[in-house]
Design a protein that fits this description.
One of its GO terms (biological process) is endoplasmic reticulum to Golgi vesicle-mediated transport. The chain is 44% helix and 24% strand. The chain is α+β, with helices and mostly antiparallel strands and 139 residues long. Strands 2-1-5-4-3 form a five-stranded antiparallel sheet, with helices on both faces. Helix 3 packs antiparallel against helix 4.
């Protein structure tokens, strides 16, 4: 079960964070922000290879006792972070990859909106519905 989905700007501030158990929201904010160091390490380790391969999916960033944290980075250096419950063993890597692609497509739709200013917080009902459906789909 996906418990948290976050969209982080190029400058590492949150554009969108949604978590399912709202009583642990601060814990998920901390988890997302600590994962940004791992994302930066993976991006710098890939370096030029990232641009050449067009591989945006970063894979498993780090596992904890309760959760697994996955990462994805766009060509414009916007980062997507997904926190998944560790007890969900049925979730495969290719399913996580397709969820990130779906998230990226929805983010692209927001960026194409002429009324959205890049860098502002994402406040879209369509994006919320898509994230909620992804969280329910994984459950």
């Amino acid at each position: 079960m996906a418990v948290c989905i976050a969209v982080i700007a190029k400058e590492n501030y949150p554009l969108y964070i949604r978590s399912v158990p709202t009583e642990n929201e601060l814990k998920f904010h901390y988890t997302v922000h600590t994962s940004l160091d791992v994302v930066d390490e993976k991006i710098s380790a890939m370096g030029k290879a990232l641009v050449d391969q067009r591989e945006l999916y970063l894979g498993l960033l780090y596992p904890t006792e309760d959760y697994k944290v996955y990462g994805y980075v766009t060509n414009s250096k916007v980062k997507f972070v997904m926190v998944v419950d560790s007890s969900n063993t049925a979730l495969r890597d290719n399913e996580i990859r397709s969820m990130f692609r779906k998230l990226h497509n929805s983010y692209t739709d927001i960026m194409c909106n002429p009324f959205y200013n890049p860098g502002d917080r994402i406040q879209s009902r369509a994006f919320d519905n898509m994230v909620n459906s992804m969280m329910m789909q994984v459950c």
